[in-house]
Amino acid sequence: MIATIHTFGRDLKRNPHIHCLIPELVYSQKTNKLKMFHHFNFSRLRKTFQYQLIHLIIESGGLSKLEERNRLYKEHPKGFYVYAKSKSDNNDSNNSKNIQGCINHFIRYAGRPAMAENRITKYNKESKTVSWFYNDHKDEKRYDVTDIVIDFINRLIINIPNYHFLTTRYYGFYANASKKTLDKVHALLKILKNKNYSRETRKEIKKQTH
To answer: 26-44 burial, b if ≥16 CB within 10 A, otherwise e?
Structure first.
């Protein structure tokens, strides 16, 4: 599994959420075989996510009162919000397109600021305001916003992660420690790697560039 955290929404409001890519296969080291599956229990995922998140908040010192925890479970009986959609498709070309779209989405949000420059439509030097827009997820309509410069800057910098904070994590056979396992998975899927991303190769490239 690959997971990345985003702290903002399109409207730049504080909206911490996690995006996950979950492979629709299981690899067995004993048999060196893959088992494909296309079902994921989203109901259990919502409730598990709810329980684990509340537990982490309690460990960090929040939700000290029992009634606060009970209220969250009572107000969200189906668990916390999870937007999950299978990318499987009987058409291989469409399936590949969907998967690549997910990957592009990950990369775009993990390696860029909270908002692209092309969403800034105007800067008024006299009134010291910035005009920008966003398309809402719910209706895909465009909304135009005008902020005082300081407020606009605050919207952006609040989403800058701390130094050395990793926004993306890799689990299972995607983790760096499981490189050999991932190579076996690639071999079984008959996927040829375009590049060698091993630690040894990265070290060699680093030596050559210094």
So the answer is: ebeeeeeeeeeeeeeeeee
Is residue 200 helix, strand or coil?
helix
Closest CA to 72 of 90, 56, 93: 56
Contacts 24+ apart (CB under 8 A), 157-160: 158/7, 158/14, 159/7, 159/8, 159/12, 159/14, 159/113, 159/114, 160/113
pLDDT in tens, 55-83: 999 999 999 899 999 999 999 999 988 77
Helices (H), the chain: 42-59, 66-75, 92-110, 149-157, 179-189, 199-208
Gyration radius of the chain's alpha carbons = 22
Distance in angstroms (rounded) separating the CA atoms of residues 58 and 52: 10
How far lies 77's CA from each of 41, 47, 58, 65, in Å?
16, 8, 19, 19
CB of 155 closer than 8 Å to CB of 114: yes
Residue 156: CA atoms inside 13 Å, Cβ hemisphere, count?
16
> Given this model, what pLDDT does residue 85 score?
59
Measured CA to CA, the distance from residue 178 to residue 201 in angstroms comes to 16
